[in-house]
Amino acid sequence: xxxxxxxxxxxxxxxxxxxxxxxxxxxxxxxxxxxxxxxxxxxxxxxxxxxxxxxxxxxxxxxxxxxxxxxxxxxxxxxxxxxxxxxxxxxxxxxxxxxxxxxxxxxxxxxxxxxxxxxxxxxxxxxxxxxxxxxxxxxxxxxxxxxxxxxxxxxxxxxxxxxxxxxxxxxxxxxxxxxxxxxxxxxxxxxxxxxxxxxxxxxxxxxxxxxxxxxxxxxxxxxxxxxxxxxxxxxxxxxxxxxxxxxxxxxxxxxxxxxxxxxxxxxxxxxxxxxxxxxxxxxxxxxxxxxxxxxxxxxxxxxxxxxxxxxxxxxxxxxxxxxxxxxxxxxxxxxxxxxxxxxxxxxxxx
Length: 350
Description:
Oligomer: single chain
Shape: elongated
CATH class of the largest domain: Alpha Beta
Distance between the termini: 35 Å
CATH superfamily of the largest domain: Flavodoxin domain
CATH architecture of the largest domain: 3-Layer(aba) Sandwich
Radius of gyration: 21 Å
Strand content: 15-25%
């Protein structure tokens, strides 16, 4: 079995076809907000463990990239909105990661745990692992966080006191189930007094990319056409072997280590996809004609890999699927049952 798995795990050669394949690619990031449950009405809290990930260092390749999205997220809700904003703006993104990760006990409300203690102590400054490279190059910083006890987590104070924000524009945003942003953003102003603070915004669980885009437009935060063209020209088709991704012409990054599931069925497909994800691969190619979309989806759902890291591709074939592509897409979404897909490849007739 492992030989079979090893044989089908590959460094993706078809990537060039997806980067620029003369219109044969149907890109579809049909993305729905993840349903990340919260056990308190007032905030993104802690009844689930935070994801354990290495800190993403902001090391932009484009000199004209002057926007940074910095965020802290305990359960993933804030992270998803931060990624939406970074995608819309072609901005760099930095996760504020605690040196000592929060456990579910730490984050349990009104138990006297670590989060309770920190929020009750205005001078608490939880240590951060990693740092932003070249903070001086950013003119605009979007700052995201969950609401904890009506305020920003104290680790946001640590972040603001770690850099010189003089002259930079800071646009805060928060996530919560019901609490408004309240004074949480205003209370941060004294930590970066020489910055230009814009009014913050609160987003509920499940906020869409369209909501984030409208909010950015309202605050006149955007990438100029010159910047966008520069970013696109420099990054499309660019391989990042450290991250194991390639930039598509749509602006999305696609993993380059993946699995082709042709001829794999049922448990063989499930086991192969599981092995791929455990080995660090994040790209899965499936199709209606392979008859294994359901098995792929089950393996993705059962994995411990965050959904947004897994890039699933499926296909549209000539005939009935050409005539009713909407139904073909919905059929795949139903069989996969993973919320969204990143791309559909249109199979040609000649």
